């Protein structure tokens, strides 16, 4: 039996999930490096009723010969999109394997302010040795060490978002005080490879804490709001969801839909002549929109949401917008964000209390 309504997310990096997707794109290649390209895609997804868009990123180019691809930074794209949208959530990918968590936390808090509380964060890892050289940092070479860096990075960011209490900015003309310094806090974090004192340089985000998404095998579950799980079929996804240990679980699903001009299988075959669509362990749907609707209804029984990875954005997004989301909405199988709501509210996540304010209240009560 189908379950509750789903939250639908979609990945909008590049021209699609296939490394050669640019060969079937409806625009000239130079348009990929313009911010208005991603703003247009975000507008399409927001109008369709998606809950969230994600924007992939990394310090290294995402492609290799014969299909090199460039990209604008994900946080910068997200900030541009935030100004031209009003309801959809926006979650850039920001690895913290080598990046400074202090600066990452500030960038993401700024994005939440810009978007009026619609920001999220997809935590990933840099696992290629070239990334360490690009950062000028020692190699983090094994999976356990990368998981430690991810976990520490999220913990630092969450602590820094709390380092300003909600009412720290007082703007008192009478006393000539802008801040109440007693409501700013040092986080005094010490990990295995670095220490962060704080406080942040950006006030607490509107959501209190951004929505943090990631793989539960790469980031401790207690530091995630949404687990991104993989599996090649419904049973594997159900098992991964049951083991996630996070408030919400989203399944990763790749899609190649039938279009008026070609079937999904024909489009995949055309692109496979140029580069392989690598198997990343995700469930993959190739075929008509009606079958994807049925699949998503089935998945609603085991996960809270699905992140879609379309083969070619310019070809698959129109089908998703015209046939898939309307059919799911008619069956009341998806939730559509409402104006004026934060991403946390849309996802049914409470706004967390500030840890330092809670500690102070508990101390006063003693």
Structural class: alpha/beta
Which percent band covers the strand fraction?
Answer: 15-25%
Number of domains: 1
Order of helical and strand elements: EHEHEHEHHEEEEEEHEHEHEHHH
Roughly what is the average pLDDT, rounded to an integer? 93
What is the number of strand segments? Answer: 13
Would you tell me which CATH topology applies? TIM Barrel
CATH superfamily: Luciferase-like domain
CATH class placement: Alpha Beta
Coarse shape: globular
Distance between the termini: 51 Å
Largest sheet: 9 strands, parallel
What is the CATH architecture descriptor?
Answer: Alpha-Beta Barrel
Multimerization status: single chain
Low-pLDDT parts are none
Tell me the Rg in angstroms.
21 Å
